[in-house]
Amino acid sequence: MQAVGQTRPGRLGDADRPPTAAAGAGAGAAAGGSAGGSPAAFIDQTIRGTRVAAFTKVLCPSCRKAKEILGSRLPAGGYAAVDLDSGTVPNGDAVKEELERRTGKHTVPYIFINGQFLGGADELEALESSGQLAARLGA
């Protein structure tokens, strides 16, 4: 639904992002930048703002796999893809640390569906293989 990062297939532009999640100063504030936001608030806002949120890294093979699966099941821009290392989330490392603390998982991607933590690419792929992903996505 919304995305933080570069606009490309599977992502929406700045106009579709919540004001504090847009690239630039807003993202810095939401992700714990100088405007007083926190990584926790950024994560909460991202998860609440869309049905599906994927916190990823640009060059991560598992993240690419997860994005491919989500992209095949959801319309273009149908999920929030937050690339923690793209430079558009100034405190991406702090956001990742907060995700680790919340989930107990130490590797990207972190995938949330309807506000609930699903897991990573392996869990997403298992749902896809079992035919249960469509039901979870409500598609």
List keywords for this structure.
globular; disordered N terminus; Glutaredoxin; alpha+beta; 4 strands
Task: Report on the architecture of this protein.
This protein starts with 24 loop residues before the first helix and ends with a helix. The chain is 40% helix and 12% strand. It has a single domain, classed as Glutaredoxin. Strand 1 (52-56), helix 3 (61-73) and strand 2 form a beta-alpha-beta unit. With 139 residues, it is α+β, with helices and mostly antiparallel strands. The model is unreliable at 1-36 (pLDDT under 50). Helix 2 (39-48) crosses helix 4 (92-103) and helix 3 packs parallel to helix 5. It has a 4-stranded mixed β-sheet with strand order 2-1-3-4, with helices on both faces. It has helices at residues 25-30, 39-48, 61-73, 92-103, 121-130, 133-137, and strands spanning 52-56, 80-83, 110-113, 116-119. The protein contains 6 helices and 4 strands.
